[in-house]
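Objective 1b: paired records.
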Amino acid sequence: MPSRDDHSTPPPGRVRLSPDERRRQLLGIGLRKFVERPAMDLSLDEVATEAGVSRGLLFHYFPTKALFHEAVVAAAGRRVLRTVRPDPDASGEEAIRQLAERFIAQIVRRHDFYLALVYGQSGPLADLDDPGATATSLRSGIAEHVCRALPATDPRVAHAWVAYVEDRALQLPPGSELHALTTHCVTALRALSRIS
């Protein structure tokens, strides 16, 4: 008969996961809850309960509430970058078109999520000492895709173009045609590149 200290069998309702799987699970729950409220208001007790783990185990993976929030914001940013990147075999203007189309679609489709990620309820959340950190980091990541697709593009122009595309997508009225905005944004990059 196993002793009370034997932890080889998880308690009822709790699934044994590898450390990587558990960390991904906790971040996934945090991401789902992210759009419901500001990240700093995210209840760790709710996350632990939904995961079927103790609050103490959650703190094993994320020693502070702030570290959990930072990890959720970082995971959300990585998700956006994966979603918008062009196909690996696309290059040049085709890659730019894919990037613009996917970035606009991401913002329009997940508008509240995007706003929560980049601007939060009280400003960007990745680094409270640097209130523009999340927006800057995300734009820089997308600008890198632009520079890979069109290597002659000045990185400052790429960054400005990403901010422009983001702003146009955020202001797009519901039900608008995304193809027209994509075409406009691709043309805008050409124009910006000529005057830089």
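Objective 1b, second protein:
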Amino acid sequence: MIAPAGSVDRIASALLANGLILRGGFNFTLGDAPPPGQSGAPAKSVLLVGQAGAAPWPHFLRWQEKQSRIIANPLDTWSRDVIGAVAETFGARAVSPSDKPYLPFQQWAMLAEGLKRSPLGILMHPRYGLWHAYRGALLFEQQLPIEAAEAPIHLCDSCVEKPCLKSCPVDAYSAQGFAYQSCLAHVRGANGGPCRTGGCLDRNACPYGTAYRYPAEVQAFHMAAFADL
């Protein structure tokens, strides 16, 4: 086993080979209730794994082409495979946002990177805007030398027009939260073509991080998974 305290750069390199990146981390404190690590003992540190833009997409497609059968939730499966292999190499336990019982990934991400939620619920990143995601995490039973994240400027605070709340034809996002059923019905319906092929209109209306915007095929993939089309 490689000592994790000296391995963060190597972990980052191993993930980058598949288009994934480390998204920060933190050490659990005495007041936390951390999940178990690799051996079952409470984890002491967590590193978040995710993406910026669509960098993992070509790696995922190559993996998918090699599969001999149709796999439900293929992106989750690919992410588990990649992150799980890295975890095994570096003596960590890999966990996923879709694991049950669910782990507090968004709270972990806010601690790891100091981010805040956008009006759409997605964490706003000062560089990537809304075009990023968390694909998993690595749990270590040793403390890592992780510095606390400094809270970045929250771009939504200076955004007066809030175009992300004005572009959806069924007003799926509002101060009252996400109108899931209205959104789903629209995406599945006769007028939902632009959303199905190009992604969420509210998300695409955000002016930040546009250099990292997912290509239309990636957005269509995620929308199809949301609508189960």
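The longest helix spans residues 74-90. Strands lie at 21-27, 45-52, 93-95, 116-117, 123-124, 132-140, 173-174, 177-178.
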